[in-house]
Amino acid sequence: MASSLLQVSVVAADQEVWSGAATMVVAKTSEGEIGILPGHEPMLAILAGGEVRVTAEDGSKITANAAGGFLSVENNNVSVVASAAELVG
């Protein structure tokens, strides 16, 4: 049975911004906004500048501003690698 959680890592060139278990990730890509849930097909996308929104396992919302980079999804692992990123709020 597939896991009901995503393992998410949001990193900037110089630091890890956030990592942990999540139920959903929403990010802005060069093709438009994308939502990722557990079981998502593998993909690689170019990040557009803007927010990456994560719904953590406990239901809390984490928002990071990210600029430049990419997002990859494979086997319920989501990696957001940005040239610059920081948590909001």
From TrEMBL:
Listed name of the protein: ATP synthase epsilon chain
A GO cellular-component term linked to this record: proton-transporting ATP synthase complex
Positions of the ATP synthase F1 complex delta/epsilon subunit N-terminal domain: 6-85
UniProt main location, coarse: membrane
Cross-referenced Pfam families: ATP-synt_DE_N
Cell compartment(s), UniProt: Cell membrane
Bilayer disposition of the protein: Peripheral membrane protein
Stated role: Produces ATP from ADP in the presence of a proton gradient across the membrane.
Coiled coil: none
UniProt keyword annotation of Ion transport present: yes
GO molecular function (one): ATP binding
Keyword Manganese: no
